[in-house]
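User:
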Amino acid sequence: MKQRFITPKRILSLLIVLIVGITLHSMSKTHSLFHSGSEGLEVAPRPVADTFTHPAAPGENEPKQAAASTGVRDWLALLHAADDGSPVFKKAIANLENLLAAEVPARPRLLPNYPNPFNPETWIPYQLATPAEVTVSIHAADGRLVRTLALGHQAAGAYESKSRAAYWNGRNGVGERVASGVYFYTLTAGEFTATRKMLILK
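Assistant: Predicted structure:
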């Protein structure tokens, strides 16, 4: 009979999944308490200036759920790094992605696209603090409009996984593949607008 050896990496992977399983329940309870206590509250929209920089990490003045969301992202990063393709990993990753998607961010944010550089497709993640009509417009380096992604009315939440983020297949409005080079993508959600840079390499 062929012997199967448990490698240190496998042990670490199983420990990560175990810890996530233990903490996921308590995090879900915190999430439910937070949202049940916030029903009926209205958050006034506030304009945010265009930015080409990475969003700042949550500081002491940020709401507690921002730090909790950062913790979920840290767990996701660990799980993705150790993922061996087994069902237990896929379930743990899916659970954390669902939990992260359900969190209501403190402010709207446009996040870096992934992969970047890319060829031919990429995903553009973002967060909404309030419901809004969402569009993503893509421009070439010379300012020419290449493509507009009309995402419709979106609820508040995190749109970061591939199943929720905006998707661009690297084609223009008439279905032609665009050339290699630098492009800019702009998220418009209500009064919020932000722009970032991405690179196509062929």
